Amino acid sequence: MNLLEALQHLLGAQYVLTGDDAASYLTDWRGRYTGSALAVVRPADTAQVAAVVKLCAEHGAPVVPQGGNTGLVGGATPDATGRAVVISLGRMNRVRTVDTDNDTMTVEAGCILQNLQEVARNANRLFPLSLAAEGSCTIGGNLATNAGGTQVLRYGNTRDLTLGLEVVTPQGEVWNGLRGLRKDNTGYDLRDLYVGSEGTLGIITAATLKLYPMPVARCTALLALASVPDAVAFLSRARAGFGASLTGFELMSAACLELVTRHYPQQRLPFDGSVEQHAWYALLELSDSESEAHARERFEAVLGAALEDGEVQDAAIAENLAQSHAMWHLRESIPLAQAEEGKNIKHDVSIPISRIADFVAATDTLLQEHFPGVRNITFGHLGDGNLHYNVQGPVGEAEPAVLARQDDIYQLVHDSVHAFDGSISAEHGVGQLKRDELVRYKNPVELALMQRIKQALDPQGLMNPGKTLQDAGQV
């Protein structure tokens, strides 16, 4: 019996997709990578995942785990050989338990993130991971890439929200580490090893996640600022004034919001005048455990002092939930408006907050020197130092001309990131897109340690090959 027949016998033919039925799983969300596969399989539970992986190991077939297929670096797309088996975890979407005394929930990897937020909310709890793709991304993919999102400032990345994992190893064994413990010093932290490994060490099939009390009140404000240094200065003021209540601090250039309001004219800024009247904008969110009145009082006190000192040029505080949603909608529409404008060159970088202003100024200048007319569409999570430092072509330039310069722009931006002690991947992962870049910027000792871990856990090299690390023969 060949591998395809064995998979059909194991799962049932309807859950082993080939040909046109498999096509949608073989191209990434951005349409950048398209691969080929022996089959796409859709197991129903962890036991079936383990059995599939074991069969693949016996036949020497590569395995590519896939969640919602919303990644931005090609991490869930197979190569072109047609040998790989894509394991789609979409059927594994059960919430196994919700424990409000322990403030945890145990969920399967195929659960849609937005659904988990709703499950937590129905239990009067908060699951704080939140990002633009939450309506389609899965928690398994979030774990595989250690996703960040808009509330990292207060709650941390996905790794920080995870207490335990269930993982299928490259040999088809199951590690059950679904302990909902906040203290467990009994050896190496395997959980942290698997989170962020992009499916190259094993397949995460379930997780025990942290829950939090629901905030009594939330306040949202949109600020207008003259410069990135002013934004950084106000962030320090906000941290001192709000403490742990400060849950979000998003930075957006005027160029970002100009794209949004031009492509989506129904969206408006809550200020008089044009978008370009101010160079930068910041979106803040404050969560309060007391009351709406208390939250607003704190907001007004901190903002009032910043306005008096000239640190903030203008501010609008949301009066109700609809206004808050409208402010967040401006921020969340930036990637969509960029897509409407045309293909662009995306960077997901992190920089020490104290150096962000200098990084932006220096890199903007370098780009104009080497690629005159390109547009910087810079936005991101200033509170945790994560910028989406995107580059759009000059107005009217055809997409092929923009993309032809992609490698050179990547190198210029990433060289600058490295010079400012930053990281070339903050929350999107490495995947295929940044795999070879990693060799340029990662410490050789770190890379060697990563290769040794990969070799120890996956000696056949079958788990999501070609992602994160170069194959042994390429090093």
From TrEMBL:
Tell me which UniProt keywords the record has, alphabetically: FAD, Flavoprotein
A Gene Ontology MF term for this entry?
FAD binding
Cofactor(s) for this UniProt protein: FAD
Source organism superkingdom: Bacteria
Domain FAD-binding PCMH-type stretches: 33-214
GO BP annotation list: respiratory electron transport chain
Instruction: Note whether Membrane occurs among the keywords.
Output: no
Q: Which PROSITE patterns does the record cross-reference, listed alphabetically?
A: FAD_PCMH
A single Pfam family it belongs to is FAD-oxidase_C
In the record, the note on similarity to other proteins reads: Belongs to the FAD-binding oxidoreductase/transferase type 4 family.
> Which protein, by its recorded name, is this?
FAD-binding oxidoreductase
